[in-house]
Amino acid sequence: ILLAPGCLDFPPDQWANTVKGLAVDLNKVLGAHYTTEIDTKQSYDLGDLFQLSIRTPKQSKMVRTHGDWSIAFGKTIQATTFAFPQCWAEYTAWQAYVSQLFSSVQTDYHRQVIDFDKAVRLRVSNQKHIRLTDFAKFKDLRTIFLSPYGMGLNSGERATERGRRSDRVGKSRGNSGRREPCHEWNRSTCDKPASECSFEHVCDRGNCRGNHRRPNHSDAA
Fold first, then answer.
1. Which of 17, 55, 123, 214 sits a CA distance of 20 to 30 A from 167?
2. How far is the C-alpha of 23 from the C-alpha of 35, rounded, in Å?
3. How far apart are CA 69 and CA 74, in angstroms?
4. C3H1-type domain: which residues (predicted)?
5. In the chain, helix, strand, coil percent, each to 5?
6. What one-character DSSP code corresponds to residue 136?
7. Rounded Cα distance, 75 and 49, in Å
8. CB burial class (10 A; 0-12, 13-18, 19+) of residue 191?
9. Hey, is 183 helix, strand or coil?
């Protein structure tokens, strides 16, 4: 494959995974996309008769965002369909499915979508009768990685982050339950509109809470 005309720019070690039907490591694909350094020589067995000796690029980047995933999986589609053209429909359908998941959740939770994709591709590589388009067979993984009560790899981190957010919201509200006045807005240094600010855009002098800034309190009184 590496010597075939039109062979794509794809990490040689991930070519080995592709040919053997194993899950491609998108972190390595993305890292190879950006790296300019070469790591040590490695060997991979391809069946009983062949061994592939290659030099692999050093890891330089991890898949952390929708954009990262799109680059890495897009290159994976190109490589996979170069070797197995019949996989085009399956892989492009999975790309569309995961992209829809990314667009359906907040950016803070894109890491869970990435973990879900990885878990699905590992299952498909381990159970050859399953295809990426068998969406119903991944319901348990979707619960594990994408539900708020799932037990995915980052479920503890998600709970911690939810706690932090709750603390931030609590701090922005006084004991009465109302949001505290925005002191930066009163100093004309808050760059957020009232609808996006965690604090309320009202006068912070005493209990005034008027629709004017603190320096204009006397004029409004």
1. 214
2. 21
3. 8
4. 176-204
5. 55, 10, 40
6. G
7. 28
8. exposed
9. helix
Reduce the DSSP state of residue 42 to 3 states and report it: strand
Tokens of 20: 């053997």
Which letter, b or e, does each residue of 152-168 get, where b requires 16 or more Cβ atoms within 10 Å of its Cβ?
bebbeebeeeeeeeeee
Q: What is the pLDDT of residues 120-167, one digit of tens each?
A: 999 999 999 999 999 999 999 999 999 877 776 554 455 444 455 445
Q: What secondary structure does DSSP assign to 164-219, as a single string?
A: HHHHHHHHHB-TTSSBPB-HHHHTT---S-TTT-SSB-S--STT---SS-GGGHHH
Q: Is 83 exposed, middle or buried (0-12, 13-18, 19+ CB in 10 A)?
A: middle
Determine the average pLDDT of the residues in 171-189.
Answer: 73
Please give the single-letter amino acid code of residue 219. Answer: D
